[in-house]
Amino acid sequence: xxxxxxxxxxxxxxYGLLVVICFYLLxxxxxxxxxxxxxxxxxxxxxxxxxxxxxxIEPYQKVYANGDFMKGLLNSTIVSFSVxxxxxxxxAFAAYALGRLPFRGKNTILYTILAMTMFPSIxxxxxxxxxxxxxxxxxxxxxxxxxxxFNTKLALVLTYLIFTLPFTTWVLTNFFKSLPSxxxxxxxxxxxxxxxxxxxxxxxxxxxxxITTGLLAFILAWNEFLFAMTFTLDFQARTVQxxxxxxxxxxxxEIPWNTIMAASVIVTVPLxxxxxxxxxxxxxxxxxxxxxx
Amino acid sequence: MAAPKSQLGKQxxxxxxxxLAPTIxxxxxxxxxxxxxAVSISFTNERLGKPGQSEYVGLENYTKILxxxxxxxxxxxxxxxGDIRWGDDDWWDSVSNTLWLTFISVILETxxxxxxxxxxxxxxxxxGFLRTAVLVPWAVPTVVSARMWAWMYNDVFGVYNDxxxxxxxxxxxxxxxxxKQTALAAIIAMEVWKTTxxxxxxxxxxxxxxxxxxxxxxxxxxxxxxxxxxxxxxxxVRPAIFVALIFRTLDxxxxxxxxxxxxxxxxxxxxxxxxxxxxxxxxQKLGYGSAMSVVIFFIITIxxxxxxxxxxxxxxx
Lengths: 293, 317
Prior knowledge:
The complex is a heterodimer. By secondary structure, chain A is mostly helical. Helices cover about 70% and strands about 0% of the residues of chain A. Chain A has 13 helices and no strands. In chain A, helix 1 crosses helix 12. The model of chain A has no long low-confidence stretch (mean pLDDT about 90). By secondary structure, chain B is mostly helical. Chain B has a single domain, classed as MetI-like (MetI-like fold, Orthogonal Bundle), CATH 1.10.3720. Chain B has helices at about 5-40, 60-65, 90-120, 125-140, 140-150, 160-165, 185-210, 215-220, 225-255, 255-260, 270-280, 285-315. The two termini of chain B are about 20 Å apart. The chains are: A mainly alpha, B mainly alpha.
């Protein structure tokens, strides 16, 4: 075999491998989309139709008509945006202190925050439930009537901070560390206070990092299921993840898979769009959260 | 670091604590207090919805979860086949399921992830497309992918059965998620699909920091690609693999969403987290469930500590 032939063969094998990888990665989502455009009879056709023969938007109309699901979508949006905004603003302050300011006990706090990014929610969901039901249990009082947290969006925003806040703080701390120290020195020479330095010099520089971290915090909150299911009772506060998980039809024997897949696609599309637009940032943020010191 | 004594140093230290205060306060309320509370509830027989009506039971919950049953004569109770009878057989089943799931899925993810990372690291037409495609499984929420896969696993109308029947791999459809022999494997397959991208991206980041001239030198010395992989790539990407491994292990040990949605712990797929949740909320045994939660917390903590200390070593190195 000549060198040229060998090269061609290698190329064929390589692109064959690429096709296999892409098929593996994308087929399940392709299948959800195909299923979401099938009518209620086509979805249960045997043998399976790999391409929809009569595509229909009927499942999407059913999702749109499902009031609970639409409320869930709205709740998810409100909760995820609030959590992201809160954890970015609170986390940025903490990250500035950890990344730029000298003070005693810094390492202890830094490692606690790193450990907190891996906190198992299941370990506290029970005791947190007692807190959500009666916030004053912390000081051994009963204010479940005066301060109802159960089945509110506030309960979710508050508890989601457990995983979003350590994450944003950690990633932003690393970002602040990476900025050159000449910046502050110059500001100090010009007579700026430490707070002015933070607010007027460093914060504007941090915008790209804030966007990356914000995207990931948003995704974390959007995808949360355990707390959303436990701390809510109905769609006054319930988000879209439990809505998808417990989505079922009128008839318990026949699960409306096409409608469920339509709902699944609706919930996933915003995330896919985000990923397409901010691919680089998301990859940077993911690896910064895990690998970089 | 020596504590700064200057006026500026004091000002900075004060500012630091002011900026940290909101984060610390929130973490105390939503993490530290619940953890303390979980531990204290775990020593009681409190039931959900009946606060204040519980008794202190000491270590009873823990001994029931963790220790074997004893017969009246003080010897360890055994089943007719000689197996030890545990205080809570479900717990040890769930531990074994969780460990198997973690072990198998993390190994598969690492191998597949490294493969995809190596492909992404080479130059070819369509690399941008693959980069984006890799992020798709990661971007699909766990609950959604669990339902997607449950639909694909459907015994009568599922696409996997159809494919395998057409390929002649199986003779009759399999109820993947209802079958004890296949349910855990089916969930592992979903997990691997969902999390391989994360692994691939972390490992790609590790590959990208290897300087290219090492490979050029190896080429000049006449080392084959396979030799280069084992003697250059693998040793240099090892720290990245290690961090990714621990990260994924932690995630897999906590697995809850996928199980809850796909089988609710049925057909031999109960994990530590789903069992604790069942005890807490379905059986309303807040005390007993909390004891399980605390045990899970300790298991996870062991892994977190090993992760954080590795991090330390890496930083100082």
